[in-house]
Write a structure and sequence with these properties.
By secondary structure, the protein is an alpha+beta fold. The chain is about 15% helix and about 25% strand.
Length: about 300
């Protein structure tokens, strides 16, 4: 819970040439701690003080579990003053909250934070069609993947990672923020397999560049597994597996060797594949599939 602070009191000063004025309390601004916004001086207990509340947990951890962002990104949101708890801006990384009671907002948006033990975790695999944004909301009113899974669960689920608007294939959705953040963290190198239809017929020496790693504007890529599936006179189908999650990575890799992508389908995310799942359909994960996903992170 957030602690309240009492207003700062100021000592009275005698007016020149007359009797001292009656002491009065000045209402604001209230005292603040280092890094705390004066408009919202109260903060929750520090790491070493949970007020005896067994449910208290760090604010950034609660935000990550709610799927707002990774824990590190959530910490930056807090420092930047974008997070309010019970209508008070919080900028201290040591702040703890009670997810069962405290009201948390990020950029004015209400965040559903619940105690970890009270949140039932759900996991769905969607075979995403083209023409849908991989996001929970679009300010321009365009269709998102959430339009395809409205009936999947009463829980607030969200997509794990990205899949381009004009790409289709395997997309994981869940309300398990911690697992989602781990699966998208570059440290764990979760493999993602794509079938790419590219313009023309790439030479083996060009494909070898992708296998070894190729330089892009944001740095060299990690080695990729690349196999030709089918060659035609004017285009080629290629299977490529990468372990990075950079924006538009596959398209940029093939553009670099001058064979732009005409169609892109993600066939696998980790051990998950879309076999038997028609485009636009989704299903809940089997326990063994979830275990296989978690094994990647061990």
């Amino acid at each position: 819970m957030m602690k309240k602070q009492t207003p700062q009191q100021f000592s009275p000063r005698p007016a020149q040439g007359g009797p001292p004025k009656k002491p009065k309390v000045k209402k604001g601004p209230r005292p603040t701690k280092p890094g705390q916004d004066r408009d919202a001086p109260a903060t929750g207990p520090r790491d070493d003080d949970d007020g005896g509340n067994d449910r208290a947990e760090r604010l950034q951890k609660a935000l990550a579990r709610a799927g707002v962002a990774s824990r590190r990104a959530a910490e930056q949101m807090i420092v930047d003053g974008r997070v309010r708890v019970n209508d008070l801006v919080v900028k201290e990384l040591g702040t703890k909250i009670d997810p069962s009671k405290d009201i948390v907002r990020v950029d004015g948006r209400l965040i559903q934070v619940m105690p970890a033990e009270a949140q039932e975790k759900v996991y769905f695999l969607l075979n995403k069609p083209t023409g849908f944004l991989t996001t929970t909301k679009d300010d321009r009113g365009r269709r998102t993947v959430m339009d395809l899974v409205r009936a999947a669960s009463a829980a607030r689920i969200y997509p794990v990672g990205r899949l381009d608007y004009d790409a289709e294939g395997a997309l994981l959705l869940t309300n398990d923020g911690e697992l989602a953040n781990l699966l998208t963290h570059p440290r764990y190198h979760v493999p993602k397999t794509y079938h790419a239809k590219v313009k023309g017929v790439p030479r083996e020496e060009d494909l070898d560049k992708l296998r070894r790693g190729i330089s892009l504007e944001d740095g060299p890529t990690k080695p990729a597994h690349v196999e030709v599936i089918q060659r035609a006179r004017v285009n080629t189908w290629i299977e490529i597996t990468v372990t990075e999650g950079r924006n538009r990575l596959i398209k940029r890799m093939f553009w670099r060797i001058q064979h732009p992508v005409l169609k892109l389908v993600r066939t696998k995310f980790g051990a998950l594949d879309t076999e038997g799942l028609r485009v636009g359909e989704y299903r809940e994960l089997e326990p063994k599939e979830l275990a296989q996903l978690r094994s990647i992170l061990d």
